[in-house]
Amino acid sequence: MRLILIKFFIIFSLGLSLQGCGVFGDSADEANPENEYAGWNTEKFRTEAQKMVDAGNYEKAIKLYEALESRYPFGESSAQTQLDIAYAYFKNAEPESAIAAADRFIKMNPRNPHVDYAYYLKGLVNYNRDIGFIDRFLPTDTSQRDPGSAREAYRNFEELIRRYPGSRYLADARLRMIALKNNLAMHDVHVARYYMKRKAYIAAANRASGVVENYQRTPAVPYALQVLMEAYTELGMKELADDTKRVYEQNYPDGPPVPEFKNMTFSHRLWDFIGFDK
Prior knowledge:
Layout: H1 2-31, H2 33-36, H3 42-54, H4 58-71, H5 78-91, H6 95-108, H7 115-127, H8 133-137, H9 148-163, H10 170-197, H11 201-214, H12 221-234, H13 238-251, H14 265-274
């Protein structure tokens, strides 16, 4: 009797194992993208991916574009697919992947008629780094943040203008460069003020004078002159302090023309939200 029970247990266990293999095999097949996209052609992939983009489901759009590129790597629209992937990464808040995809497109398609957009997209990615939802609708002082991404964005747009002077994205790139330049200038003013608080007057004067020299015609200049006056006074450089005061009063008799509070960052953030990016 005991032997019969043992044999029954073994047969029963083998049955369960075989059944389990069948179940897991079916699940694996269902999760296989090759099965999911069976029978899809290029047009079907692009249509469905665009639907996901329009719906704001960028993660799904990325998967579709990547599946399209994997299945049709040398198709007529393969270059456009690479750009679409870069754009979807950008909208999905994956800046590193977006820039990598744009760089890949530039390297593989240097003569493509849309290569200027790849340069423009790199600028957009860096321009929008670290901007949260609240920043887009409320005035926030972006000039007090780490300027690394802003400098990189400025270089991206500068390269676009240099390489493609006839690009349709030039007007937008130039406007963004103005906003970036204003923020970079104001950032240096904040640094100069920090040095003043630390009584590092020479460093403060150097940083403020750099704003006056390198960021002329930006709203930050009068604030930089104020720091310079104070720094020169603390250093006992009365003649330089008086000269700076004279320049300030001649150019800004009524004080800074643009209120310091967020120096037009609200306008360029809102414009970011409603502006075109493709």
